[in-house]
Amino acid sequence: MAAKDFLDEIRADPELGGIYEEARAALESAADSEALEGVRVAYLGRKGRLSVLLQGIKRLEPEEKRRVGRLGNLLKGWLEKALADKGGLLRIGEMEEALRREEVDITLPGRAFPAGTRHLLSSIIEEIEDIFIGMGYRLVEGPEVELDYYNFEALNTPAWHPSKSLSDTFYVDVPGSGSDDVLLRTQTSPVQVRVMEATPPPLYVIAPGKAYRRDVPDATHSPMFHQVEGLAVDEGITLGDLKGTLEHFTRRMFGEERDVRFRPHFFPFTEPSAEVDVSCNICGGSGCRVCKGTGWLEILGAGMVDPNVFGYVGYDPEEVSGFAFGMGVERIALLKYGVPDIRYFFDNDLRLLRQY
């Protein structure tokens, strides 16, 4: 049945025709979505005029019930479609009006949003990595929660060594293990053991990462710090190769004008061993609080890998030799940029972070 035909029938019915004419007028006058919802409720809601009429047809005679029911449902379908069509038009108009209200005035100056920067320590680590990658080294990583075997034993550290004491090392309590061989690594050196176990020589790697020690925080110490471990193992490597490598690194990192010195030292996993210092740029070498009056700041420890360490990983010390070194990233940042206190790196002070 054409729409015109059933609408003519509806108009001919006094009650349904009245509902139709009133609903049509209400639809035409609805100016927004809220008014349109009011029309829907007034006619199709639970107590709406058309809904109440349809609910009352059960009291009519059968023939009248069929006629009113058919026309009432046709009117309901027409009204639902009319509501949907009018709703679509209103939404388009409301969206266009919202866009007009929210139009951007391109003549206004822009609003600058603050942009973050790389943390200085992250930048230093990346610079160190770039220098050694340029020399043919590759990056490796290892766990921060480590076993005593990798952190101490396989690095030729005896059981009585003071670095294994509770005053120096953070041990991890593993419930039910009955063991105290789990700890927070005190250096990134355990990575070299893990890499040598899995990789035959030749080997040239650096391992950046966090390390933990029971240090009292001061201008140059922190209980959590960043370190970069380096390891080279090959045939015929000598102490001269170690010295040349570290001198090249310090020239690239600090510039030709900075003084470098090697001091004899002892580390359980290297023999011979040395500490490498760079002249303090805070005081120019005359002595200050940061360098404790010496004019020098230690940046790394190094040495030739002890043959005993090769024994733990199955390398033959008669065929290969190697050197290892470990440097503190925070101390390098102190030296290179003149930051007077290591604790500034962990304070989240934007005045410092925005400078680099």
Q: What labels describe this entry?
A:
elongated, two-stranded antiparallel sheet, 356 residues, alpha+beta, BirA Bifunctional Protein, domain 2
Structure description:
By secondary structure, this protein is an alpha+beta fold. The protein has two domains: 3-101; 120-353, BirA Bifunctional Protein, domain 2, CATH 3.30.930.10. The protein has helices at 3-12, 14-29, 33-44, 49-55, 62-101, 120-134, 148-151, 190-198, 239-254, 307-313, 329-337, 350-353, and strands at 138-139, 145-147, 182-184, 203-212, 224-234, 260-267, 270-279, 296-305, 321-328. The chain has a seven-stranded mixed sheet, sandwiched between helices. It has a two-stranded antiparallel ribbon with strand order 2-3. Strand 6 (260-267) and strand 7 (270-279) form a beta hairpin. The two termini are 79 Å apart.
